[in-house]
Design a protein that fits this description.
Length: about 230
């Protein structure tokens, strides 16, 4: 727990719950080091801890439906093709990524960025939390920014609050204004959910200032953030 600042600051009952979840995670998932990544057992445990944090409220079932974790030493390149519906043109290009989550497929991570998050836990960024948020979002089909919600959160209330915050951010980004939420969140509803999830765990004070309603819903969904106030 000591090597993972987010876990270290949880209260005792939540640390115990996390420990149990990490054991299940390590038993069920398979790590693969790619491109010469030096992935130690400690790295694997630290990834498992951060991946389990967002699932603590819901338990191991929230992490079902996939098995592999691919770890690169740093940023990795993917070849993307994009089909524009209007022009019918397909463009392709290499894109450098630090993380990726496939629907019913692997979680892909840059080890250098995982380590950076452990060194700077309260800077608002966390690649493991980001990719796990996508995984939670994909439990009920294609990612849309609305994960499977527990009974105490109303789906309608979630959709209204998130849509309003997303529109607000998109508008600010389009006008070139500085934003509290990283502008990458304006890409789509599912990226918005993943980016604000990072803020919840890593810099909730900024999220509360940016959008109190979303901050409150994420606290209800994930449980209180361990971040210092
Ligand atoms: Zn993403």
């Amino acid at each position: 727990m000591d090597a993972c600042p987010l876990a270290q600051r949880l209260d005792r009952p939540r640390q115990n719950a996390l420990r149990e979840l990490v054991c299940v995670f390590l038993a069920r998932k398979r790590f693969h080091a790619l491109a010469g990544a030096e992935l130690t057992p400690l790295h694997q445990t630290l990834i498992a801890m951060q991946a389990s944090l967002p699932a603590m409220r819901q338990g191991p079932r929230a992490l079902r439906g996939w098995r592999e974790i691919l770890v690169y030493p740093g940023e990795f390149k993917v070849r993307r093709s994009h089909h524009d519906d209007h022009s019918g043109v397909v463009t392709e290009g290499d894109e450098a990524l630090i993380g990726e989550a496939w629907e019913r497929g692997p979680l892909v991570l840059s080890l250098a960025d995982v380590q950076l998050d452990l060194e700077q836990p309260w800077d608002g960024f966390n690649v493991v939390v980001h990719e796990i948020a996508h995984k939670l979002d994909m439990l009920d089909g294609s990612p849309d920014g609305v994960p499977l919600l527990p009974p105490h959160i109303q789906r309608r209330q979630w959709i209204v609050a998130f849509q309003r915050a997303f529109d607000h951010l998109s508008n600010d980004v389009a006008r070139g204004r500085d934003t509290l939420i990283d502008s990458y969140a304006a890409e789509s509803a599912d990226e918005f959910f993943a980016v604000v999830s990072e803020l919840h765990w890593s810099q909730p004070s900024v999220l509360r200032r940016a959008d109190a309603a979303v901050a409150e819903l994420l606290t209800a969904y994930y449980g209180p953030s361990p971040a210092p106030h």
